[in-house]
Amino acid sequence: MAENRKKVILSGMRPTGRMHVGHLAGVLTNWIRLQDEYECYYEIADWHALTDDPARAKEVNENVLGMVRDWLAVGIDPQKAVIFRQSYVPEHAELHLAFSMLVSVPRLLRNPTFKEKLAELRKKKGYTRMSLKVERLDVEDEVDQILRFVREEDEDKARRMLSSVINRAKDEVLEKITTEVSLDEAAIPAEISYGLLGYPVLQAADILLYKGEVVPIGADQLPHLELTREIARDFNRIYVPVFPIPEPLLTETPKILGTDGRKMSKSYNNAIFLSDPPEIIRKKVRSSITDPMKVRRNDPGRPEVCPIFHMHKVFNGEEVDEIERACRAGELGCVACKNRLTEVLIEKLTPIRERAESYSDEDVLEIVREGSRKAREVAERTMEEVRGAIFGP
User: 344 by DSSP, 3-state: which?
Assistant: First the structure.
């Protein structure tokens, strides 16, 4: 009889700060469901948090405490899922090293996340095209000789002399690229670290170290998972089969806009946090933008462009149809709509905030330490297989 076991899931977050309602709707609610259906490993991805800015290391410990406190408060259960810290399991770094031998630099340069980050930095730094300043070559004597050979109809000597001039030009351009432009800094700014380029390789190590079989992602993240699948296939082909080929578990992520209409993000300063008290929630909702064309209360509204309505769709399902109808009909003003949302959010977030406050720092640290111990037991077994596959017994 086949073993009746749960499939393995690895998912994680970078510890960049407290959780907001976008995290609750987009990730945490799904994690709560998955922990009952799968063998789940939920990773505090602290190494990943440094790929954009290594100076963030000073913030990581504080961010870990706040983030895990919020995880526990919404219902992530350490008895059902393994909550662990990436840097507490050094096997992540070891497997990352092994996998880095299997991936070419051109393949990493094609990674969608890297290309987006590269475009963002190039725009920020004003890099629009590569520019090389190569000094004029002193080839007058060679040109005179080439012309003399042509006049003398000595085609072979003329061709050899021309080839010599061309090769000198190539050598100088390559020298400029190597010594002055450092692998084309105009195309790859200095802010791009090896860690950022190799981010998806470490991500593959995260998933495969626990032999993850299922990865919960949105459809737009499928290209990121494909590199993990390629690495697993290549390792199994070059050495011996060790890793499963992880499959995507496509999940719909509700659209949560921040108070300014952009994607909700701590970096945009437009987030409503799970830890916000009622007075802060009221202030943030009250200051949120709405449909700019709905100036007066009885003007017809466009809910599809309103951040407040987007949050009603996720957190106030019972009233959302009526709110949409009344808004479009000009029967519901923005102030009243915001007040409805405020009360709903306060009702939903207050118990979460209170539960989070009930966990001491030591409570959180103990849960992370114990989860990391469990994770490392699994990681050590995997790395024994990996070392044996690569180097033999």
Answer: helix
**Four-residue CA torsion sign, 250, 307, 124, 20:** negative
Q: How far apart are CA 192 and CA 20, in angstroms?
A: 28
Element (H, E) at 59: helix 57-74
Both tokens of 299, joined, read: 């003007």
**How far apart (Å, rounded) are the C-alpha atoms in residues 194 and 139?**
40
Work out the angle at residue 98's Cα, subtended by the Cα atoms of residues 92 and 101, and round it to the nearest 5 degrees: 135
Place of tokens 């086949």: 2
Compute mean pLDDT per 10 residues along the chain, 393 residues long, and list them.
79 95 96 97 96 87 95 98 98 98 92 80 60 56 76 77 72 50 55 89 97 91 90 98 96 87 92 98 96 92 94 94 96 96 98 98 97 98 98 89
Residues 6+ apart with CB under 8 A from 374: 82, 84
pTM over 0.85: no
What is the CATH architecture of 276-357?
A: Orthogonal Bundle (1.10)
d(CA 15, CA 23): 12
In contact, 24 and 65? CB cutoff 8 Å: no
Instruction: Name the CATH code of domain 8-108+193-256+360-391 (choices 3.40.50.720, 1.10.10.10, 3.40.640.10, 3.40.50.620).
Output: 3.40.50.620
- Where does residue 135 rank: exposed (0-12), middle (13-18), buried (19+ CB within 10 A)? exposed
CA distances from 52 to 99, 130, 163, 198, 347 (A): 21, 23, 46, 12, 36
